[in-house]
Amino acid sequence: MKDFLSQRITCPHCGHHIHLDLDASSGDQDYIEDCTACCNPIHLNMHIDHANNKLELHVDSDDEQIF
Ligand SMILES: [Zn+2]
Questions:
Q1: C-beta separation of 14 from 34 below 8 A
Q2: 58 C-alpha vs ligand 1 centroid, how far in Å?
Q3: 5 pairs with which residues across the strands?
Q4: Closest CA to 57 of 67, 43, 36
Q5: 7 Cα–ligand 1 center, Å
Q6: Would you state the pLDDT for residue 12?
Q7: Is the pLDDT of residue 42 over 70?
Q8: InterPro entries under this entry (predicted)?
Q9: What pLDDT shows up at residue 3?
Q10: Residue 41 in contact with residue 63, Cβ under 8 Å?
């Protein structure tokens, strides 16, 4: 399994396609990335499935979350 994976996601706000380089070596990650097109925050949830050598990436907007 490669440690760095290039993924393409779609911005939940504007539909812009964004390339991300994900570091799968550091395990599951949950973070916010700003869209390069509309600058809105995109919530990224990365889960490493070691059993299947797979990386799952969940993308959603952060609109309804309250900090
Ligand atoms: Zn966007």
A1: no
A2: 16
A3: 22
A4: 43
A5: 16
A6: 94
A7: yes
A8: UCP037225, zinc_ribbon_bacterial
A9: 66
A10: no
